[in-house]
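Entry 14. Structure prediction run on the chain below.
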Amino acid sequence: MKPALIQLLDYFLTDLHVSANPKFNPKEKVPLRFEDFETGVEFARAKDRKRQGKVILSLKYQPAAEANVPYRFAAEIVGELLVLDAATDELAERLFNTNGPSMLYGILREVIRDATARGPYTGVILPSTSFYKPEPKKEAEAKKEPESKPAEAQPKPAPAPTKPEGSAPNA
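Output returned:
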């Protein structure tokens, strides 16, 4: 085991609301639709400490009023992160923007499960998600048509067989 290039120094909740749905029918199907989740990510870094800063992750689950869901909830978490010096500046930026929110989402996943499990219905486990966004340069390169290779030289057809001198002509 070795330390990750990004470290979570501290985290805390700044908001947590959970509401049980009194009209929820546990005998009916529960539509856990990804579209009903809303996330927001903010970054705050000091100009003199570009490898350390805060990530603020907000999460809301507010499906339509008539949806048969056990809970609706909203939460916000703030994390203090540090990217180690071993990472290049480019990698540090990617770690902060991708791994930072991912680490906090994992914590919120457990907080929401725990809070909803204390209510009248089964606890909610948030769906897995990704905060990865391809770099614009690399995404554009991936969409490029593959470069065409020069046509390989076609083999020349073999010369037609010739008859040895002095052989009899075909009849």
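The two ends are 86 Å apart (CA to CA).
Filed with the rest of this week's runs.
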